[in-house]
Amino acid sequence: MLTAAQRYLLNRLNNGARSLLLGNLLSNQLNAAKGLYDFSIHGGAVSTINLDDVTNEFGTTSNVVIPSGSIIWSGVVDTLTQGATSASGTFSLGLNTTTDLLGATAAASINNRVALVPVGTAASCVKLTADRTLTTSIATGAVTAGKFNVYLQYWQG
After folding, report:
1. Residues 6 or more apart from 35 whose CB is under 8 A from it?
2. Structurally, how many domains does the chain consist of?
3. What is the CATH number of the domain that holds 123?
4. pLDDT digits (tens, 9 = 90+) for 17-58
5. Which distant-in-sequence residues (6+ apart) come within 8 Å of 118 by Cβ?
6. Would you say residue 21 lies in a domain?
7. Which residues, at least 6 apart from 5, have a Cβ–Cβ distance to it below 8 Å?
8. Domain assignment of residue 81, given as a range
9. CA 111/CA 76 separation, integer angstroms
10. Considering the entire predicted model, what is its pTM?
11. How far apart, in whole angstroms, are the C-alpha atoms of residue 157 and residue 150?
């Protein structure tokens, strides 16, 4: 994700960058984001939880924020620890809404890989209406276990 200022600087870096418009070229590439939910960190109470980006260059966590106008093209949940609940708890994932990436899904069904709503087609993609934080919502009942990464592919709008 490049800001307008970064695009401007990259476009004018040198003669080669100028002829390619390097900043514009890099901005038009498919981007990736990764968010983490971990019961041992986030808990399992009925709530909406901001997912963490644990891949930043400083080794610290921050919320996963996707810029306004971005188009979410595809995504997948990669389960590290299967979800569990003692009270019919569900997970959902979202950006614009709490369920636009994954509708309410039984915690125990968060196992192996789980496809998200955007599956690489124009009909299924999600366009963001503002800068959005990737969230998971726990509903119906508390969750007692679970750890997963959410991987998204998107174009910045």
Report:
1. 51, 52, 53, 64, 134, 149, 150, 152
2. 1
3. 2.60.120
4. 777 777 777 777 788 999 999 999 999 999 999 999 865 566
5. 72, 73, 74, 75, 101, 124, 125, 126, 152
6. no
7. none
8. 30-155
9. 12
10. 0.81
11. 21
